[in-house]
Write a structure and sequence with these properties.
Elements (H helix, E strand, L loop, with lengths): L6 H4 L19 H12 L1 H7 L3 E5 L5 H11 L6 E6 L2 H13 L5 E4 L7 H4 L3 E6 L28 H13 E12 L4 H10 L2 E10 L4 E9 L18 H20 L6
Parallel strand pairs: 1-2, 1-4, 2-3, 4-5
Antiparallel strand pairs: 5-7, 6-7
Helix pairs in contact: 2-4
The structure holds S-adenosylmethionine.
S-adenosylmethionine (SAM) binds next to α2, α4 and β2.
Protein name: Methyltransferase small domain-containing protein
Keywords: Methyltransferase, Nucleus, S-adenosyl-L-methionine, Transferase
GO cellular component, one term: eRF1 methyltransferase complex
């Protein structure tokens, strides 16, 4: 993991000492750091991508959306940011974190993107999500306060499975989704599910801690994949770069399964 105190990095991402807090709001943790590290690892692509609208679902302390805004800030002017969270305290804490760093986002206290679907359909160029992914009893999902930060129900997939189809509706044709998953969430199955919707995927960061093994996966629309048809595993043969991407991502999965513990970018 990067040294979060180093000047070079902290000038581009949120500084922990400026991140606001509240007892009912999730503090930046290994998963938040891994997501920001994935964005940093992909920063050159993000700068070239020149997104116009970026969104975070489940912003918590605001560490991730603030980091994204700082990362793109100077070099991609005019980007707009939106962040949602079901926890009203998280929305307030994010507001303070953004302000402390001199950046701005529209903040909405809502369930994923409820009430925003029409307005944002097909407009989001970059979506970032560190969802509640911890396997818990179903009845813990959606509880108020800090429990909503991690409670993911069976296999930790309850909220993830709600987010994916919404992300598909909101992402633009060139939209990218960066999502944190845990091994128990069955990330390869998530990738296959997204592939059926026409998305390619790649692991940007894989990190194992004592408690969990995290994958930060990037999804993007691959128009060589035919969504929702029997041939949806067919890749357009006229797009060799896409074929290579797909093969590389498969090789990457296999090598991760074998090695179990590595960092990649
Ligand atoms: C693991 S925390 C991540 C917080 C922050 N993004 C980070 O990486 O540090 C998950 C966040 O998602 C929020 N959340 C949970 N369910 C949600 C939902 N259905 N819609 C929007 N936000 C949700 C929680 O309140 C919490 O702030």
């Amino acid at each position: 993991m990067h040294n979060r105190g180093s000047n070079k990095i902290s000038s581009r991402i949120a500084q922990i000492r400026l991140v606001s807090s509240h007892p009912e709001v999730y503090e930046p943790c290994d998963d938040s750091f891994a997501l920001v590290d994935a964005l940093l690892a992909d920063r050159n692509n993000l700068l070239e991508h020149r997104p116009t609208l970026c969104m975070e679902v489940g912003c918590g302390s605001g560490y991730v959306i603030t980091s994204l805004a700082l990362m793109l800030g100077e070099e991609v002017p005019g980007v707009q940011y939106i962040a949602t969270d079901t926890n009203p305290h998280a929305v307030e804490v994010t507001r303070e974190t953004l302000k402390a760093h001199g950046v701005h986002a529209e903040l909405i206290n809502t369930d994923i993107a409820s009430g925003l679907e029409k307005r944002l359909a097909g407009l989001i160029d970059v979506m970032v999500v560190n969802p509640p992914y911890v396997p818990t009893p179903e009845e813990e999902v959606g509880r108020e306060g800090i429990a909503s930060a991690w409670a993911g129900g069976e296999n930790g997939r309850r909220i993830i499975d709600k987010i994916l189809p919404i992300a598909d509706k909101l992402l633009s044709d060139r939209g990218w989704l960066y999502m944190v998953t845990l091994t128990t969430n069955n990330p390869s199955q998530i990738c296959l599910q997204m592939r059926e919707k026409g998305y390619a995927s790649r692991i940007i960061v894989q990190r194992s801690t004592e408690e969990e093994s995290l994958h930060i996966i990037k999804f993007w629309r691959d128009f060589g994949i035919k969504p929702d048809t029997k041939e949806n595993m067919t890749v357009n043969k006229t797009a060799p770069a896409r074929v290579l991407d797909t093969l590389l991502s498969q090789v990457h999965w296999l090598s991760l399964k074998k090695s179990g513990n590595s960092n990649s970018s």
